[in-house]
Design goal:
Blueprint lengths: L3 E7 L7 H14 L4 E7 L11 H4 L3 E2 L5 E2 L2 H9 L8 E3 H14 L9 H15 L6 E6 L9 H14 L4 E8 L2 E2 L4 E2 L2 H13 L5 E6 L5 H11 L6 E5 L8 H7 L2 H8 L10 H11 L4 E8 L9 H12 L4 E8 L5 H5 L4 E4 L8 H13 L4 E4 L1 H13 L7 E2 L9 E5 L14 E9 L4 H6 L3 E8 L1 E3 L4 H6 L2 E7 L4 E7 L5 E4 L14 H18 L1
Parallel strand pairs: 1-6, 1-7, 2-5, 2-6, 7-10, 10-11, 12-13, 12-14, 14-15, 15-23, 16-17
Antiparallel strand pairs: 3-4, 8-9, 17-20, 18-19, 18-21, 21-22, 22-23
Helix pairs in contact: 1-3, 1-9, 4-5, 5-6, 12-18, 14-15
């Protein structure tokens, strides 16, 4: 069977949730027994989002093979329960860099290098490379139809129908059908205009997915079908969900999107099995107990900055039959201790830069002294070490050399292999590394095994010169990258549940399989809540 290609574009506005839509479509097709590969295209000129502020782009999702990618790859992993690779995310920067390098190497001798065919051929080759051993390749093209930087990608998508045959390609357009409150009616004109723009480029969408706050009336479906030249049954409603994003695959199934795709791509009838997904959504809807978790960071105004952490906490709640209410706490806020006192557990996430560090150290101290369940991630672990060094080991002025290169007690220092690296992009310690866990510790109780593999994204690490002093006072290194003797997990000796890790466990959490550390963190927070209400 020839590989089938699905291209997902977006129109009218950004932030429509194309990533969740693409992941949900992948989930549906996988439930039909098909092997599905996913690709996210970001038209910006950065090679990857690794050097971008979270306020610009949201979180940076790290793959097992060490790629810094768009957060939508997190959705793909969670919805399809697979691991993405570096090849699963491309940008304009990657494409143009590859084409220019080929030109300098002499691959195009005698030719004028142009957007068509050289740039579009490079794009198509990346998409086709993902088809090996897969039945379907789903490509989500970021941005909004009409954005100038996205045009080469849309042109490449247009050419695919000619290259592989019209029965092997499907174009899906995700668009907004807004409700105008003053007029008390929904409007289809933005959708019509967006599809018209797409058709100018040469792409005729076969399916239109309408993002809407309200049910899409039949007459509006007919209108969209007529003006956008699609079948009425191919106008699909995707309403805002009430409980969880994990409802979306089931919503699209109720709209018969899986059947429509199987028919359009000549894939025949397939048996579907979404029972596991149905159980998850049912469970989420029936949770009655609550636990409050404070996420103390500096990007709290933007929920997408901590997207995978949000999802991993939700999964941890599912593992304990409890609804996790997440409360974002700005570490630069005026009432920090007051806000911390109102939660059942505290999480300090990763981050970069000096801003907010003193606040994060205060948060770690508050959790340590108050015996509040604590999970520190990456920079969160480093702040926990700094707090312990300053306030327990009495190392006055202890710090990280990232924030104070002249500190007398550099308890956090640059990794040795990072000292001669000056280029910022793609040069951190990235991707999967092994961690050996000591038996009997909290981490071992969570994982139930000694060797685990977790994803990393950092330049700084606990300085081994101070390890003995820290451990002598009760800060225990319970997980280690043995080859380099790097601390991966720390715990506090006299604390009910205080675990901090140098890696990013949130990237490995799934709704069907909560990450062990998040599961046990929520359990500890729930236990504390029960004791405090007795």
């Amino acid at each position: 069977m020839a590989t089938k290609y699905i291209f997902i574009t977006g129109g009218v506005v950004s932030s429509l949730g194309k990533g969740i839509t693409a992941a949900s479509i992948g989930c549906l097709l996988k439930s039909c027994g098909l092997k599905v590969s996913m690709l996210k295209i970001d038209p910006y000129l950065n090679v990857d989002p690794g050097t971008m502020s979270p306020f610009q782009h949201g979180e940076v999702f790290v793959t097992e093979d060490g790629a810094e990618t768009d957060l939508d790859l997190g959705h793909y992993e969670r919805f399809l329960n697979v691991s993405m690779k570096q090849a699963s995310n491309i940008t304009s920067g990657v494409i143009y860099d590859a084409v220019i390098n080929k030109e300098r190497r002499g691959d195009f001798l005698g030719k004028t290098v142009q957007v068509i065919p050289h740039v579009t051929d490079e794009i198509k080759s990346r998409i086709k490379a993902l088809s090996k051993n897969f039945d379907v390749v789903i490509t989500e093209i970021g941005g909004t139809t009409g954005d100038i930087e996205g045009l080469p990608f849309l042109e490449a998508a247009r050419q695919f129908k000619q290259d592989v045959g019209e029965n092997n390609v499907c174009y899906i357009h995700v668009t907004l059908v807004p409700y105008i409150r003053a007029a008390e009616e929904m409007k289809t004109k933005p959708t019509q205009q967006s599809v018209a723009k797409l058709r100018e480029i040469g792409i005729e969408p076969q399916i239109i997915i309408c993002r809407t706050e309200r049910p899409l009336p039949k007459e509006l479906r007919r209108k969209i079908a007529l003006f956008c030249n699609v079948r009425e049954k191919a106008v699909v409603e995707e309403r805002d969900v009430s409980t969880s994003i994990y409802e979306v695959p089931l919503m699209l199934k109720r709209e018969n999107l899986d059947t429509i795709l199987l028919q359009m791509l000549r894939l025949g009838k397939k048996r579907r099995d979404l029972s596991e997904w149905e159980e998850i959504v049912k469970k989420i809807g029936n949770l009655r107990k609550n636990v409050i978790i404070g996420v103390a960071g500096k990007y709290t105004e933007l929920r997408d900055a901590y997207k995978s952490i949000w999802e991993a906490l939700t999964h941890g709640g599912l593992g304990n039959d409890v609804n996790v209410k997440i409360r974002y706490i700005n570490v630069e806020g005026k009432n920090l201790e007051e806000e911390l006192g109102a939660v059942d557990g505290i999480l300090v996430p990763g981050g970069f830069g000096e801003r907010g560090i003193e606040g994060k150290i205060r948060v770690c101290r508050f959790a340590r002294e108050g015996k509040i369940p604590f999970l520190g991630i990456c920079l969160g672990m480093q702040c926990a070490v700094i707090d312990f060094a300053q306030n327990v080991c009495e190392m006055k002025g202890a710090n990280s050399t990232e924030f104070n290169p002249a500190t007398r007690y550099p308890v956090i220092d640059l990794l040795p292999e990072q000292k001669d690296i000056f280029q910022k992009g793609g040069t951190m310690r990235l991707g999967n590394y092994p961690c050996r866990i000591k038996r009997g510790c909290l981490a071992f109780r969570a994982y139930k095994r000694e060797l685990v593999f977790e994803r990393h994204r950092h330049r700084y690490e606990l300085n081994n010169k101070f390890r003995a002093s820290l451990e002598g006072k009760g800060l225990l290194v319970t997980g280690e990258y043995e080859r380099e003797h790097l601390a991966e997990i720390i715990e506090l000796k006299d604390h009910p549940w205080f675990v901090a890790v140098q890696f990013h466990p949130e990237f490995n959490s799934r709704p069907t399989k909560p990450h062990p550390l998040f599961r046990d963190f929520i359990k500890a927070s729930l236990n504390r809540k029960k004791k405090s209400t007795v």
